[in-house]
Amino acid sequence: MDRGSSEQELWEEEVVADHRWGRFSLWFDVDDHRGSQQLEELRELWKSAQPFDPSSRRIVEQIRSVEICNWNLERSILALCGAIGKKEPTPLPIGHMSSVCEERWRKLWAYYYTLRNWLPHGLPSGYQIVLGMCDPESVVQNHIMRMVGEGNDLKKLYVLRFCLCLERWLGGYPGGESPQMKAHDAAVSAVEEEIRKRDPHREVVPESALIADGDGRLEPCNHKAFRRYDIILSSIGSGTWRAAMPVSGVDGFDRAATLEKYLSPIESWIRGVRPEVGDEANELIGRIYSLLGGRDPVKVFLASLLVSLLRSQQLAAVKLAETRAKKS
Description:
This protein is mainly α and 328 residues long. Helices cover 65% and strands 0% of the residues.
């Protein structure tokens, strides 16, 4: 097999990466061989799909970008099915922060400016003016005010710390040693030090919830981002972690079920099985088959890669939910 192109190396690495099939060994400390098995099967399909044109290579990159945690997952899968069917990349931005739409950005800005406006300021600020544009009906403002309530020193520090999390994502800060990140990290360090003086055991918001500004868990592209914002803000308001929003621990089951509606028919298409028609579920199946069109080696490889990458995350989500359910 020709292994000289970066596209091949990238998709191969993606299959066994820690956030894909490698997650089972990383999260659950088990010796899991499914990743290597998937990789070998995909390599065989890749061989059959040669020659691979530049347009199909770009679809591979789009497939690598979609993840189970993305807020626009269902639409992204359908868009990728259409891309596979036409052998042309989808114009829909797929995965990560590029997938965040204007409406979602507006909501995020409304969270940020509401919290900044809640914090005390010595002179008149312009926050309310901007809120009039991104939250004209005050829906977000009223929602946050109900959660946070009246201020005290500890609340103010935690709200400021959370604002710094949002600034990281709103500003699209470059990482590493950039001036922006150095200044950001210095501000975070100062606020965290003040929080530790007043809440040494982190009973309000645990340090793990805010470390690295929430990492991927608080990025606006995550489907649970706003729920997690509310968990943090309601905890700040109540003075105790998750007092107002207890752990459910079974979200993974729901997400896996949603994903199965798409993966199962794609797998059937790959095997050449014709769908039945009739009920509402089969309308989605028919749509997926229509988008994928006729089978050929290139399409089968692309569809198989899509299923493999998402299936790894689906199974990990179920296993994590099962683990949490046993502990509850």
